[in-house]
Specification:
Layout lengths: L1 H25 E7 L3 E2 L5 E9 L5 E10 L3 E3 L7 E3 L5 E9 L4 E10 L3 E4 L4 E5 L6 E5 L5 E4 L7 H20 L6 E6 L11 H7 L3 E5 L6 E6 L9 H21 L2 E6 L1 E3 L8 E5 L2 H13 E5 L3 H12 L4 E6 L14 E5 L4
């Protein structure tokens, strides 16, 4: 009897040692933010996914995430948060996995300020089935979340923007836009000489003039400039980001198609992060918010260069809204009739 007891204890001790040594290989784990671009102070979830690859249960797993002070940990997890002198916040979530089970742990957090933020790497703690020892594994993956700027809407900004959009729409429909040529017709003698298409006239052996489409909705370009004369503070640049968000949101609400250009240095990202082509809708707006969230207070190119890019892409005849922390760094005299400059230091 004693021999069976000794053998049983030996088997149990061997089994728990084997489990502890190999448990980290039994579980696949990953983590990510539920949303890649979020608004300031909006709660979003960080998801930690655990998958038990084996046909026997794992009785103890603890997930630990250490958040820097920029993160606001959601209210559901406040009892599990311990604050330390270095201002980091440790969140602990304990669970277990059945055989071949997948489980997602969600930790609600928020971030108050615009920018690009790395997610902290979760640390997994595994225990043997007797609960006597622990083994840990850190998930070393690069994950990030981008926080868009806050919206900045005042009556003054709304009035200036509304007046410009109204006047621009009127000009757009009164004056024919040479970009919107839809066909040709015979010259009647009343059209200005600039409307004559000399190429079509040569082909038809008579004077032909261009016909324009007056039914197309207005299209604008929005330029966010961070170049300053050196006297403006970063607070004005940050406000420029917020005003730019409000402008884009206003255009979205009116269904006006627009392109977006920004000359700031970017924190990460892929592709051309300094422009978003014409469009409207959630996907279009989301790409712009990502660029505003990643943008720094330092210029990547001059205002003149980003303006040249906008004009080359969309044409000189298009209306232009420039948001800047310093209007003295912005030159626009050639396009006074179609440009609105919003200087954040003036609001």
């Amino acid at each position: 009897m004693i021999a069976f007891l000794v053998i049983g204890i030996a088997i149990v001790l061997w089994l728990q040692q084997w489990m502890l040594e190999n448990v980290t290989d039994f579980v696949d784990a990953n983590f990510w933010p539920e949303e890649n671009v979020v608004d300031p102070e909006d709660v979003f979830n960080i998801v930690v996914e655990l998958k038990n690859k084996k046909s026997f249960p794992i009785y103890f797993i603890r997930v630990k995430m250490s958040f820097p002070e920029e993160y606001l940990v959601g209210p559901d997890y406040k009892p599990m948060v311990k604050r330390y002198v270095n201002d980091r916040q440790d969140v602990f979530v304990s669970t277990w996995l059945k055989a071949n089970q997948s489980l997602k742990v969600k930790i609600p957090v928020a971030i108050a300020n615009r920018g690009r933020y790395y997610l902290p790497n979760p640390v997994l703690y595994f225990g043997d089935f007797l609960g006597l020892k622990e083994k840990q594994k850190e998930l070393l993956h690069y994950r990030e979340v981008v926080v868009a700027p806050k919206t900045y809407e005042t009556e003054e900004v709304k009035q200036v923007l509304g007046k410009f959009l109204g006047e621009y729409s009127v000009r757009r429909f009164i004056y024919e836009d040479p970009v919107l040529t839809v066909g040709f017709r015979e010259y009647s003698g009343r059209e200005p000489m600039k409307m004559i298409s000399w190429k079509q006239s040569a082909q038809k052996q008579q004077l032909m003039v261009k016909e324009y489409d007056h039914t197309i909705e207005p299209v604008l370009s929005v330029v966010l400039n961070v170049e300053t004369s050196g006297e403006k503070t970063e607070a004005f640049t940050e406000k420029a980001y917020s005003i730019a968000r409000s402008v884009c949101g206003n255009l979205e609400s009116k269904g006006i198609s627009y392109g977006f250009y920004i000359n700031a240095q970017m924190l990460g990202g892929s592709g051309d992060m300094h422009m978003v082509a014409d469009g409207t809708g959630n996907h279009h707006f989301g790409k712009i918010m990502e660029r505003m969230g990643r943008g720094m207070h330092i210029r990547a190119m001059s205002y003149d260069k980003i303006l040249q890019t906008a004009r080359k892409t969309s044409g000189n005849e298009r209306g232009l809204i420039v948001i800047t922390p310093d209007s003295s760094a912005v030159s626009y005299s050639a396009f006074d009739s179609q440009i609105l400059v919003l200087d954040s230091s003036q609001f």
